[in-house]
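Title: Request for sanity check on Transcriptional regulator, PadR family prediction

Description:
We are preparing a figure and want to confirm that the structure record we downloaded matches what your pipeline produces today. Could someone re-run it with the sequence below and paste the raw structure tokens into this thread? We only need the token string, no images.
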Amino acid sequence: MRHRHSDHEPRGGGFLRRGPFADGDFRRGHRDGHREHGEYEHGEHEHHGRGRHRHGRRSGRLFDHGELRLVVLALISERPRHGYEIIKEIEDRVAGTYTPSPGVIYPTLTMLEELGHATVTESEGKKLYAVTADGTAYLAANKTAVDNALQRMQSVNTAHSGGPAPEIMRARENLKLALRLREARGPLSEQQIRDIAAALDAAAVAIERS
């Protein structure tokens, strides 16, 4: 599914839904053409529904309060991204079952910038967002919530497209995040480099032998 969103922040509030899980909503009764009401609180929208999801969650919500912000921050910590790239990445990670609207993503990015968690550079009318040192520290302080949100997204992906077990995907994302956070804390000593490399090599050997 191609996106042609501009990286100019959208005007106005309501945006059309773009999928069965639109803006966090698992309830397939919501169809395209329904407007978002109260779409975000500082860029995030909370959906409420009756019943429980199999993960012990209320049906009707993909992200708990504050989780979308963490997911967006985690994505730009991987590498700087444009707003439309973040939309596409989230869509891809849930197998196309949910596409966040620009009316959610761009206010979230603006809030991250205002909080000092993200920085933005602009070239030819396109904004590129990157994580700051404060943003990296915020991710580290909320690592459990980040891991939970990413694992939930991978569970949706696996349920709709097959692929690796969610536990494996969670562990892989956890390792990548741990490496990024450690590198952001400062230079590694020669001994630390050897220790980390040895741990990664040992894990690789164990996986090959499983």
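Thanks, this matches our download. Residues 51 and 59 are 6 Å apart (CA to CA).
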